[in-house]
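Appendix C: a fully annotated inverse folding record. The material below is reproduced so that readers can follow the format used throughout the book. The structure is listed first as tokens, followed by the designed sequence.
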């Protein structure tokens, strides 16, 4: 099976890398020597990116903290998103719309950065 060229997701450099299946569920990262930015070189995060997919420590479902016990428990997406939305709404009602802000990084494309800003202003109502 041939490797698929793509970009590393970790920083604003967006280094070129190739990924391919390794076994049934694994992913292997390979150098993309022709990519002009990094010419096949990757940082430690880039080289180990494929290992994150299959690790037992990776979260595969939302976790919410049980108010009675303080322990984290698995929850469905609807419950988790309702909890976050409710908390944001309550905080903004108590402290104002600018209580919530968003943070974007250099790894965002122009389009994603625009969408994040639009989400902050329209959906969250914040000027931040």
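Designed amino acids, in order:
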């Amino acid at each position: 099976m041939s490797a698929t060229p793509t970009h590393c997701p970790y920083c604003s450099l967006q280094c070129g890398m190739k990924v391919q299946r390794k076994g049934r569920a694994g992913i292997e990262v390979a150098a993309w020597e022709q990519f002009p930015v990094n010419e096949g070189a990757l940082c430690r995060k880039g080289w180990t990116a494929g290992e994150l997919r299959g690790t037992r420590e990776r979260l595969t479902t939302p976790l919410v903290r049980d108010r009675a016990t303080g322990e984290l428990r698995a929850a469905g997406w609807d419950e988790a998103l309702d909890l976050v939305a409710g908390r944001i709404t309550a905080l903004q009602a108590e402290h104002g719309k600018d209580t919530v802000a968003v943070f974007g990084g250099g790894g965002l494309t122009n389009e994603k950065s625009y969408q994040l800003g639009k989400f902050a202003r329209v959906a969250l109502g914040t000027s931040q």
